[in-house]
Structure formats: C-alpha cells, structure tokens
Amino acid sequence: MKWVTWEQVGVDRMACAWLITKYIDRDAEFLFVPAGQKTLPEGAEPFDIPGVRLSHHRGHCTFYTMLREYDLRDPVLQRIARVVDEADTVQDVMLEPAAAGLDVICRGIRLVSPDDQVALERGSLIYDALYAQLHVEAPEG
Amino acid sequence: MEKPQEIPWVLLVYKIPREPTSSRATIWRKLKRLGALLLHDAVWVLPATPWTREQFQWLAVEIGELEGEAYLWESHLLLNGQADALMHQFQARADIAYQEILNELEQDDADLIALSRKYQQVRAQDYFHSELGIHVRERLMGARGGFAS
Known about the structure:
Chain A is mainly α and 141 residues long. Chain A contains five helices and three strands; from the N terminus they run E-H-E-E-H-H-H-H.
C-alpha cells in the first residue's frame, strides 16, 4: 500500500519507514508532500503529520504510536521507541545516550541523499544496526 | 548571521486546565528544556529554525491532547532595537549558565563529568552561539586528565 509523510525526513520518519517495511507492509510505497500541505494524496496512509492517526501522541514520537497501533510488542522495538522519543522530541527524562547521536546521523543522511526516498532507504541500515546492537544488549524495556 | 531585525521568531501561547497539575508541569518543563523565553508571563518565544518550529508544533499538539489550547505563530519584531534586545536576553541567559560552569571549574574537586553534561545542555539552548560557550568548551578540554594533546 501507499504511505505518505512530509518532505525532509528525519530520525522519527526514517524509523517509521523502517518499521513499516519490516513489520507492517513489505511492499510499502512512500510518497512525500511539502511540510504543511493540507491536502494529502487519496488512498495513502499518512504518518508523522500533525493530527493524523499515526502521529505524535501524548508527547511520544510517531514510531512509538505505530508500535501501539500495530500491537508490536518486541522489547527491542520498545527500546528503539524510547531512543527515537529522546532523539525527536523534548523529554524531561533522558535515559538513552544513543538518542542525540542518532538524531544527528539521520539529519546527515538526509543531507547526503538526493531525495527523501533514498534517505529512507539509507536510514533503514541505521535501524537494522540499532536493532541488532540493542538485541545483543539485555533488553531493558 | 542575519541581521537581528530579520530573525524570524516562533511564538507559542497556550492555556491548559489547572488540574491535573502534572500536565501543566510537564509542558512547563519541556518549554524550559527547549530554552524558550517567557515574555511578560504570556508568550513563549524561540528563534525560528526548522527544529524549533517542529518542537513547538508537537508541543502544541500535546497541549491539545491535554485538553488545553495552543496558538503557534511565526513573526518578526517591527520596532527598532527589539530584536537585538530579545537576542541579548537569550545570550545573557546562556552566559549566566556558562559562567556557573566556569566558576565550578575553579574548584579543586570539580565534577568534570557533571560539568560536561551541563555544558551540553546549555549549548543546546544557546541559540545565538555565545562566545563564552567557546571558552567553556576550551576550559573543559583543558581540564581533561591524562596526556595533553
């Protein structure tokens, strides 16, 4: 199916696209609209856009919302959600040292990528790597 | 850097129910963590960047979910000198925090780990790149143990 989000993807949307392709929709196709555009393409599921179902809720990032909406309970994914929360949003409790670095790397990936599509593809390696490393460490939840 | 009067600012005005007090405190802490300035107990302001716009946008969403109401603007200051004054307020706040770090670095038992963490926090809110910040960074580098480089 088709998924749509705003242009200039960053840490949260790279994480979401990785999650969608790995766990929700193997044949996912991603579309991008300029930030703030009111009309969205018909038939595409929007994510990480204010006000839609798959977006920030109660101070958590969209990745966190997607785990809840799609009932994904893998503790390693929960841990990644915590990292992305701290990387993408202002948190008053900071527990994940990887968060700040992850944000910088994902912004950098967008800078060296010709478009958002390529940035998502490149970002997926980062999340494969993060998953693998957190899986080796004892999952702290 | 662009001229002060050309700096765009993002403004957030919100209200949130008195109860539960924890919701009010959460939003307040996040605004503090962002390093926003509260003007006249009414308007929270930050220099507009893609990052600050996005952070205020999500905060406005969160305030709505907490049964509150938030308005978010982007604007320029029109009166002569006001943008300068506002910029200086941001710088002065960063300088006070940097000076505290310098003072603590004078102590014999200065906790370098805690002070470097504090430096990172102050740096994240130092939107106009205070020169004192560069000095603090050099002092922290110089205070490292082990071999001089």
